Each structure stands twice: as C-alpha cells, then as structure tokens.
What we know:
The protein is built from 9 helices and 34 strands. By secondary structure, it is mainly beta. Strands 20, 25, 26, 27, 28, 30, 31, 33 and 34 form a 9-stranded antiparallel beta sheet that branches. The chain has a 7-stranded antiparallel beta sheet with strand order 24-23-22-21-29-19-32. The N terminus is likely disordered.
Amino acid sequence: MGSPVITGDLLLKAILLLSFQTSALLSSTEAKRTLSKDEYLSMKRHLKSLNKPAVKSIETDYGNIFDCVDINKQPAFDHPLLKNDTIQMKPGSHPQRKGDKISSSSLHIGLPGDGCPVGTVPIRRVTMEDLMRAPSLSQFGKKYAQNDSQLILSDFSTVTKFHHWATIEPYRGEYYGTQATMNVWQPDVSGDKFSLAQFWLTSGPNNDQLNSIEAGWTVNPIRLKDNKVRLFAYWTADGYQKTGCYNLECPGFVQVNKKVPLGAYFNKVSTFGGVQKEITLLAFLDLKTNNWWLKYGDELVGYWPNKLFTSLSTKAEIVQWGGEVFNPDGLMPPMGSAKSNILHSSHSYLSMKRHLKSLNKPAVKSIETGYGNIFDCVDINKQPAFDHPLLKNDTIQMKPGSHPQRKGTDKISSSSVHNIGLPGDGCPLGTVPIRRVTMEDLMRAPSLSQFGQKYSLNDSRSILSGVNVTNFHHWAAIQANRGEFYGTQATMNVWQPDVSGDKFSLAQFWLTSGPYDQQNSIEAGWTVNPSRYNDNQVHLFAYWTADGYQNTGCYDHDCPGFVQFSNKVPLGAYFNKVSTFGGVQQEITLLTFLDDKTNWWLKYGDEFVGYWPNKLFTSLSTKAENVHWGGQVLNPDGLMPPMGSGRFAEEDFGKACYMKNVMVLTEDRQFADAPKQTALYLDAPKCYSIIDKGTQRNNWRRTFYFGGPGGNCI
C-alpha cells in the first residue's frame, strides 16, 4: 500500500448542530478536602512542575492567568518519551483542500493584542484550587476518575446511568484526520457535571489499550470553576486509565501557537433562533513526522507527538463527532444547545415568538449592560403592564398621591449604593427601561405558561399546602402576622451567593394578605437566579401574585402587572458592587407603601421605581395582613444553595447578611419600628440561621441577621 493521502473523502467534515434535550436540575456543589502535610507538599511540587517560569503573564476574565513560557521549556517535554525531543514548529505536510477552503471565520478566542512574545507559548496557570477540585492528585486533568473509566471500558450498561453520548460514527476504517465546523452553545452545567461537543480520533481495542485524541468545546465547572464555554483538547493512550489529560495539564500536547491557548473561553455563543457562533477545528496526521496536529480556524495550535501513542501512531481506525455529557450523581446536564426539534414543535416555537413580541415592545433606544442584558427604552404608556385585562384603560400614575415622610434622624437613607442604574441619564424622558426577554429566557422556563413565575404550578401547591416543601425550599425569616400594615422598608447588605442551575437564593421582604390558596403578595429584594437571568450575578427584583403563586403574577415585567415609572433604575438590573467578607458592606434601601389613594409603590433609595396597580389584588387592595423579612432558597433537586453571604447569622457584621432599619407603615402612613411581637421562621437549622437583634440604639434601629451555607439540610 502506498503512502496515505488525505483526500476530501478521508478528511471528514461534520457540521455539528447539537440539539438534544436533557432535563437539567443541577445540584452538585464543590467538595472541600482536608489535606495532610504530605498531600499539601505533593500538590506544591505538582504545581511547580506544571507552572513553568513565565516571561510574561496575561490575565483574562474570570480569573484565568496564562503564563507565556519558553516554548522549549513547556510541560510537554517533561514526558519521559519527549525528554530529548526538538520542537516541531510546523507540520512537514499539511492537507490542502480545493474550492471549499477551510473557513477562516471561526469565533475569535485568542489572547489580547499579539498574545505571548515570540519564542513563548501561553499555558493556563494551574492553581491549588484546581488541584483540590480533582478527586485525587493522580486524577487531576483526567476526563474521568479511574474507576469511572474502568466502567466505561468494561460495562456500557453501567456507564449509561451517569454518562451519555449522541454521536455519529462511520464504519471502522483508516482515517488520517478530521475536521468539523460546530456552533458554540453555553449549556447550563454545574458541580461535577460536564457537557461537550467534540470529535474523537481513536484506535485500538475498546479497553485499556484504547488510543484517542479529542478536541472541541466544553462547559466543565469542576475543572475550571466556572460555567463558561472553553476550547479543549484531550488525549489518552490507555483507555483513560493513567495516561493523558486535558490541554497541558500533564506532559504530552506541545503548544506552538502564541495567541490561541487551550482552555481559553469563548466570549460569544450562539443564541436560540438568532446568530450562530461557529468554530472550525481540524486534527490531522503529519505524514512526515506522524505527529497529530490541531488547527483552530487558520491557526495551528500545536500537536500530540507520535511517541505518545501505540495504535494511533500511524492512523486512526474510528472517527466520531457529537456530544457527551457526564454526571456522577443525579440528573444529567444539557447537551449542545439543550434544545430538540422533537420536543419543541413549530407550534411551540410560534407561540414563543408571539409571547416575545407581546413582552418586547418597540424601543425608542436600547441600552446594553454587562452580562448580555439589554434594556429597551419603551414608551411609558405602551409598556407591558397595560396589556393586563384589568389595566387596559388605565392612565399611568406619574407620582404617588401620598408619600410617607420621616422626620429628623429617621429620614429614609439616601446612602444606598446606586450601583444598579443605567449609564448616563438612563432612558429618554417619556420612556422606561424594560429588560428584553430572549428566546433562551423562555426556553429555560418549565413551560411558556410558567415563564417568569417564582415556582412551577405543582411547586406552588406544595408550598401553600406544606407538603414536602422542605425537601427543596427553605426560608429564614422574621414574620409580623395578622395586623394591618401599609408598607415596609428595610436596608439590606448585598451579597453574591454561589448559585447555579435551577436554584435561586434571595433576600427580600413580603407584604401578604388572604388565605394560602388565594394569597396576595408583593415582594422585593435582591436575588441570584441563573435560570431567570442566565448568569450568577445579583439582580434587583420585584414579584407579585394574587392567587398564591398559581396562575397570576411574575417577576419584574415578565408578565403584565407592575408599572415601571423610573427611567434610570430598571427591575432585573444587576449590582456591579457587592459586599466583601470582612470588608466594605454594600447596602440598598427598599421601601414599599400603599398610596392611600391608589396603588402599592416601590422605592429604591430615593428613586421611585414604579407601582403595582391596586386592581391586581383582592385582599391586598386596602392593606397587608402580614409582613415578612428574610432569605429564601430553592433547589428542585439535590443540595441547597447558600443564603445571604453563605455564612450563619451568628457571624454577625461584615460576615453575615443583615437587614437594618426595618420599618412598617401604619394606617396614617407613619413609620414605626417592626413590631416587637414577631415570629422567627426557620425550617432548616442545619443549613441556615436567623437572629433578631431587636431595636438597636444606634441608627440601625430594628435589625436582624440571617443566612447560611446550604448543603444537605435533611
């Protein structure tokens, strides 16, 4: 047989449009390990072997540092088989295609500027925390723990319990490379799970002699401590047992590119029904050296030396393209875009398009803030609120008919951190900012009818009836019950608890009235709620319901109801400053009060945000019967998220979440300290706590602390 030649037939190209639906109720949290002195010293030595001396270091977003290392002193050459190797700067042969050239339009992922200096290559710096997240030091950088890989190779029926693929695989043959253009998505993944899109080139028996090289994009929080989408490469020469690793996390892959590093994240991803962000990856066998090269778009990234492999040293026998997901415990994460044409019919798609049109009113101006949030400046009289049947003929109330006034030292504080408003002067006069809802927002909801609701329908029934609610839902709150309340105010410090997936964590007050299944409630505070906002930032929110969280009400402007008045402070905006442990405490002051002539108003610091029209409610239309202040967390499956700062209330100022200056409004709209006769509600003391400090003599007045780390609360 003559020398193998790469042709259009052998250089297989796959356009991966991964769209398989997986239920993703994410629950894992990062484990903490206690190290012995010997383990600690072993880790320090391992860090030193991986993190070579840097000529220059480049810090990118999300805390990643790439060290520019002498190209001849990179970790690859610590491999025993590569000790005396000379680096190959370019392939001896390179596949050329005619007509349908390899696209140069791949999504940009390189380092800023010109990248690393000439003669150096970028290598992601490994941290002690990275090593600590691995099951053991020997398994750092591995795709699976050793016992997992043994299951994968020996018992497919067992592995499918925690590991799934959706791939295309041609018959066994002789392959000398593959290329694929794939669109990049950001599936919602947390904890020990991963989700990826990639190709595999493999050879050898499907046991501990399997050779494999792999490349694609992945979301893998346990490796990189975030849920960003990243470029990756992988190799093994013994069926994922002891050899091989991701990227450059062990000696093996040789980096030659000074701009495009393995492990870099994509700052743009595809949008559902919108722009598709693509990358083109090519792996091929250099016919002169038999090294396997990896190319990203038009950039040669580096190569896997031929010496690393046995059966893969001359060709691949199998090529695969597709997706892979993994979860060692519980429900599986999404794959690809997390959507399936099978599950989302054209009828559902059209319904969503109509719903988007009803929520996203024509904009006079649009303002993009951080983390992809867009606020449309909408005619104040044409905002979504007035689509509510009860508000069709309403005229907007431009200011409250009455406003509670405090005297002397009791004035409402104007010191709230105004770190949430829109830039500049906000929206033009006569318009108000409404967060733009996207198709992805709708798709993350359990159903279109449940979009924007705090709980799904069956959850709310459990919440109202008390059945099994403590399995997935917990509170730490102070309650003032069965009185007459016309408003409440609280100053609270803002934290950013670590929350992912379908979980949420919040600090808020509630004003409620009526029996459980007909309960009226208005609520406001701060929240971390990734399934709503598609990030883990802290957002200002408001909520209402008129039927116990059944069919009415929603967050912010996610349904007709709340009327936006402020052109500067939008609901759903994120806080760009949060409190620091033992440091500066960032506070906000929220006030809700019943205008004695009309509606329930919401005030943020000195800014009137808007109001809930009186017509929305039944029992809450004249007063509230109950007021609650505190924290709330939810996780439909698994371990509970942190509340507040993630620390127990006993840790006090600078460490725990608090509410101070907690006030209520009396019938004549005068401020008074929260009632002395209150009840503490705490349903998971193993995970959270709450302490009522009473009325303080300083300017804090009525104060309490709450919060905790979450976890297994049963």
